[in-house]
Amino acid sequence: MNAVLIALLALPLLGALATLVPGLVPDDGRALRLGAAVTAADLALAIALAAGFDYGHADRMQAGTDLDWIPALGVRLHLGADGVSLPLLLLTALLTFLCALYSLRSLPSGPGRPGPRAWTGLLLLLECGMLSTFAALDLILFFLAFEIVLVPMYFMIQRWGGAGSGRAAFRFVLYTMLGSALMLLGFLLLGLKSGTFDITQLAARHGDGLSHTTQLLAVLSIGLGLAVKAPMFPLHSWLPDAHTAAPTAGSVLLAGVLLKMGTYGFVRILLPAAPDGMATFAPYLAAFAVVGIVYGSLACLALARPGARGDLKRLIAFSSVGHMGFVLLGIATLTATGVNGALYGNIGHGLITGLLFFLVGAVKDRYGTSDLDSLAGRTGAALYGRMPRLGALLAFAAVASLGLPGLAGFWGELLAMLGSFHPAAGLSRPAFLVFMALAGLGTLLTAAYLLSVVRRVCMGDPGAASAEGRAPARARDLLDVRPYEFASWTPLVALTVLAGLWPAAILGLTDPAVHTLLGAGR
To answer: What's the alpha-carbon Rg for the chain, to the nearest Å?
Structure first.
C-alpha cells in the first residue's frame, strides 16, 4: 500500500514534468487529453488506496513511507494516510479529474493566454501539491507541499482568469505567503522545542514537553497561517476577488480543496500537538468563526439584492466564508462531535461548492455574464424554461448548500452546532451557546440568499426575458447540459446525495482518528 500512496503523489508530478519536455507533449488538444488521462489514473490509485485501507484501524497511519530526507535538520520524507486524510485524498483526486475532464471542452483561450500544455502542467503540479499536503507527516514537508500549490494557482488565475485577474492573483499570493511565513516560524518553534518535526510523534505526545507559552506562540503563528487559507474572517478578503477572476476549474479546486488545507492543518497539527494552546485560543477561534458565518451570509444577501450588480461567483465565494466558518466552529469546540462535524463539513463543502462553481461557469458561458442583475432582468433568467436540466441542477446545488437534510451540507453544520452545545471541559458553555445561536442564525440567512438566487436565476418567463434582450440570441448558446458537463457534474451530484443519506461512510472513517488526535479523556 505504501507504493500506492507514493505513486499517487508521483504520477501528477511526472505528468507535469512531461509537459516541460520540448516536443513530447504538443501544445494542442493532446495536452488536455494527457491531463485527463493522468488525473484519471491518479483517481484510480486513490480508489485503490481506499480499497486496501484497513477500516478497522482508521486511527492508525497506513500506506506509510518514512525515509531520511535532510538528516542534518532531522527532516524526513514521511507520508501516510488515516481516517482524517483519506477522504480528502479521494476528494482531491476526484475534483482534479473532473476539472481536467471539463477543461477538454471549456478551457479559456484567446490572445494573451498560454496554450493547453501550460494549463495541463499547472493542473498536474497543483494536484501533486494538494495531495502531498494531505499525506505529509513531517512539518517541513507539510509546509513545502502547502506552498507548492501557490505557484500553479497564481498562474491559473492570472493567465486564464477574467477581468481583474492580475490584481486577484497578486492578492492571493500576497495573503497566503504572509500567512505561510508566520506558519513556518511556528513550525520551527514547535520542532525545535519538541526535538522533532515528525507530526505523528508530536501528536502522540499531546503537548508533553512543551511549555504553555511555547504552545500559545505555536498556535498563534501556525493558526494565523492556516486561517488565511481556511479562510477565516477577517483574513478572507483575498477570496472573493480570486474566485470572481479565476476560470471555472480554478474556482472549483480553490474552493473544493485549497480551503480545506487550512482547516486540515488545525486538526492534523495543532489539536494534538499543542492542546493547551488550542484550549486557550478556542473561544477566539469560535468567535471569529461565527462572525464569518453571519458576515458571509449578510454579504451574500447584499449581493443577491436586485440592483446590487452582484456577481454569482463572488456570491458563492462569500458563501464559502460562511460555510467554512462552521468548520472552524466545529474545530474550536475541541470535542469529537465538533471536529467530526468539521471534517464532514470539509467534504460536503468540497462536493457542493465544486458543483456550484461548475454550474455558474456554465451559466456564464451561455449568457456571457455572471452578473445577477444582467441575468435576471425584470422577470428572471428563466433557466427552468430555457435550460431545465441546468436550472434543476443549480436549484439542487443551492438547497444542498443551505443544509437541506438528506444532502451532504447538513451533517457538518449540525455536528458543529452540537459540539458547541457541549464544548470541551474548560471552555465556557454560555459563550459557546451564544456561538451556536449565531451559527443557527447563519443557517437562516443562508437559506434566504440561496433561495433568492434560485428565484432570480431559475424562475421567470422565458419569452419576456428574451424580449428584454437579457437572453443570448444564438440558439446554440441555449443548449442545456452538454455531455462533457454531464460527465463532470454527475459524480458530484451522486456523492452529495450519498453523503447526505449515509453519513457513516465518512464518520466511520474520521471518528476513530479524531479520538486519537484529541487524546485520552477528551
So the answer is: 22
